[in-house]
Amino acid sequence: MRNKSIILLGLTLCGCNNYAETFDCKPGIGVGCQSLSTVNQMVEEDKLPIHQPRKVWIAGYEDEEGNYHEPKYIELEEQK
Asked: What is the C-alpha end-to-end distance of the chain, expressed in Å?
């Protein structure tokens, strides 16, 4: 039983050695696939694109069927 546990542990840990130094995805909106050093440089140069979503607060209300809806915030997305 102990040998099976050691073998299982060894096989489980083998999955942790697949580290890649490059990124496979292309940069999109924001900084998505940039390296950490690139993001740090963008922060230092104040060139980091910041997306601040617009939020709308909806007050709590009771609908026509008597159901109460809690107050909440919803985020609005910009349409392009």
From this structure: 61
From residue 27, how far is each of 20, 32, 49, 59, 77 by CA, in Å?
A: 17, 6, 13, 39, 20
Give me the number of domains the chain comprises: 1
Which whole number is the average pLDDT over 21-43?
Answer: 74
d(CA 3, CA 11): 12
Distance between CA atoms of 58 and 68, rounded to whole angstroms? 13
Query: Domain limits at 34?
Result: 19-76
Cα separation, 15 vs 12, in Å, equals: 6
> Is 0.85 topped by the overall pTM?
no
